[in-house]
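Progress note, project year one: complex with carboxymethyl coenzyme *A.
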Amino acid sequence: MSDKAKLNFDNNEYEFQVIVGSEKEKAIDVSSLRSEANLITIDPGFKNTGSCRSSITFLDGEKGILRYRGYSIEDLAENASFLEVAFLLIYGQLPNESELNKFLDDINENSIVDEDLKKILESFPKSAHPMGILSSLTSALIAFNPEKKISLNNSYNSDHDLMYNSIVKLLAKIPILVAWVHRRRKGLPLEYGDYNLGYVDNITKMMFQLPNQDYVKNNVIVNAMNKLLILHADHEQNCSTSTVRIVGSSEASLFASVSAGISALWGRLHGGANQAVLEMLEAIKNDGGDTKKFMVKAKDKNDPFRLMGFGHRVYKNFDPRARIIKKAAHDVLKDLGIDDPILKIAKSLEKEALNDPYFTSRKLYPNVDFYSGIIYKALKIPKEMFTVMFALGRVPGWIAHWREMRMNNDPIGRPRQVYTGENRRSFVPINKR
Ligand code: CMC
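Model obtained:
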């Protein structure tokens, strides 16, 4: 196989290096295209553009494979804790027991937020969407935790300490913010956790403990949360992660970059799909449960309705996370003794879509968000909070990519464009227009 790609243009031939990844995927390095041929590439939505080299997550959309640092998502979701996965994503290796204990201790040491953040939270209208609040509070954290400028060209150790401190601070504070956003919606007092508990156990305590009641761990809930958070932890260069990397590439801080990532995740074509799926399933139920009627709407190009939770930019086969979540949804409902008609509607929509040429020819399969809302609903998490739960899970992935981008000294992200506006023209005074 040649390691060069050739381009013939305007009677000239240009050669470009072909880069091969560790899973043998190939990419043409076009970075010299402009200087050599005065050309740029155009690819709206970056559908076929690699923005970086990354050793964090491998995804094969055709085969339905997802691996974090080489470990299959199935293996991790079945056997690992979310904090182990966070460490793995950020630092590249599974932690041993003492590394994991130290990581948790360092997180716990930072598990406090400035009391003034409560005032900011309380100043939001009750109707504010939790994703907007979370993004704002994450950004506000910067004011209370000013970061020293990390410049990896200076003293290696002190810069790595600064980076480590930012990472454990963020992993400590985001769960508190998530729990507080949830508790405020419910009218519950804003409290801290119990740092003798595990990371996920403590998150469930912070979210669900009622006043004047002891916290009793419910293994079904903690295990379901652990699995969902792992499944959401990273997904390579998606919209929000690319946002985090591009914001961070300007040397904006970790908190600022993650705050931007939260905003990018919010939309219903990305993380917001989990809320949209549940709203869609409820609408179908309230309309009498005729799934076929909604299938017709989803296929009608004149109807804006889309089957939420279906389709994916990179998976052209089953989303491996959806398989795991479908089973988990079934198990959680059974273990909690819940009989939710919404699950039945979801299953029949899935069955119809998987047998419909519109969906099969476009390779539209259920994605991670199709069943996750059913689990969150069973855990009594309101649907406006679903995308916040996704964000909570995605934080380690965002951190890992921000860190990788800084460690690799990646250049500032700055795409080009093909200008399609007016050519040069002269200003016309207002009285002559
Ligand atoms: N329902 C009906 N038709 C669809 C759907 C859908 N959910 N998704 C894609 N299509 C059609 C689309 O109309 C187009 O048809 P045609 O070729 O005739 O014009 C074709 O399939 C390709 O779609 P696209 O919008 O060009 O594909 P994309 O890669 O730009 O978009 C997507 C991917 C995920 C935004 C899209 O499939 C979608 O809107 N899905 C519903 C929202 C959703 O579930 N998002 C969550 C994604 S997973 C969570 C995450 O990691 O973000």
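The first helix runs from residue 33 to 37.
Residues 235, 238, 269-271, 273, 298, 306-313, 362, 364, 367-369 surround carboxymethyl coenzyme *A (CB under 6 Å).
No further modelling is planned for this target in the current period.
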